[in-house]
Amino acid sequence: MSIKQEALDQLPAPTMNFTDLLASFRAKGLGVADLVWLSGAHTIGISHCNSFSERLYNFTGRSVPGDAGPSLDAEYAANLRRTNCTTRTDNTTVVEMDPGSFLTFDLSYYHGLLKYQGLFQSDAALITDEAARADVESVAKGPPEVFFQVFARSMMRMGMIEVKTGGDGEIRRHCAVVNN
C-alpha cells in the first residue's frame, strides 16, 4: 500500500543545499547531470508559499521582513512578498514555479536560475556547484530539443529506481485503490 509520507520522504526537499541534493540523487544511482536535468521539471507547475517562505522572510533566522537569501534576486523576492506570499506563514497561496511559463515545458526555468530567480533553495543550489552550473548554462544556451532529450534520458534512469517485480508490488486497476 502506498503511504503519502513514504513517497514524500523519497523526494528532495525544496530547502536542500547542493551537497544534500547530490547525496540524495547519488543514493538512487543518479548523478549531477540527472540532478540538473530532472530539476528542469520545475519549468511546469506551482508551489505553495510555505515551501519557500524562509527564503523570503527568514533567511538569516532574524525573522525580519525582507530577510531574503542572497541567492534570490531582490526584485523577484520583493514581488513575491508583495503580490503572492504576503506573510511568512501563508500555506494557501500558490505561486508559479517558472513565472510566465509554468504551463510550458521549456528552457525558461534555467534562464531564471541564471538570473537568481529559482523559487526553491534547491533550485538556487544548482548554480552553486561548478559542474552543475556549467550544465545549467549549457542547456540554457542550447536548443530546447537537447534539453528534451537529456531530460527524457534522466527520466528513464529515474524510472528504473527500485522497481518492484514479481510479488513485491502490483499494477493497480485504479491508482487510488489497492487491488483486492
From TrEMBL:
Domain of life: Eukaryota
Cofactor note: Binds 2 calcium ions per subunit. Binds 1 heme b (iron(II)-protoporphyrin IX) group per subunit.
GO biological process entries: hydrogen peroxide catabolic process; response to oxidative stress
Catalytic activity, as annotated: 2 a phenolic donor + H2O2 = 2 a phenolic radical donor + 2 H2O
Binding-site residues, substrate: P12
Binding site for Ca(2+): T43, D98, D106
Any matching Pfam family: peroxidase
Keywords: Calcium, Disulfide bond, Glycoprotein, Heme, Hydrogen peroxide, Iron, Metal-binding, Oxidoreductase, Peroxidase, Secreted
Residues annotated as transmembrane: none
SUPFAM superfamilies cross-referenced by the UniProt entry: Heme-dependent peroxidases
GO molecular function: heme binding; lactoperoxidase activity; metal ion binding
Names of the cofactor(s): Ca(2+); heme b
Binding locations of heme b: H42
Residue ranges constituting the Plant heme peroxidase family profile domain according to the UniProt record: 1-179
Disulfide bond positions: C49-C85
Keyword Repeat appears in the UniProt entry: no
Family that this chain belongs to: Belongs to the peroxidase family. Ascorbate peroxidase subfamily.
Task of the protein: Removal of H(2)O(2), oxidation of toxic reductants, biosynthesis and degradation of lignin, suberization, auxin catabolism, response to environmental stresses such as wounding, pathogen attack and oxidative stress. These functions might be dependent on each isozyme/isoform in each plant tissue.
PANTHER family linked: PEROXIDASE, PTHR31517
Record protein name field: Plant heme peroxidase family profile domain-containing protein
Species assigned in the record: Aegilops tauschii subsp. strangulata (Goatgrass)
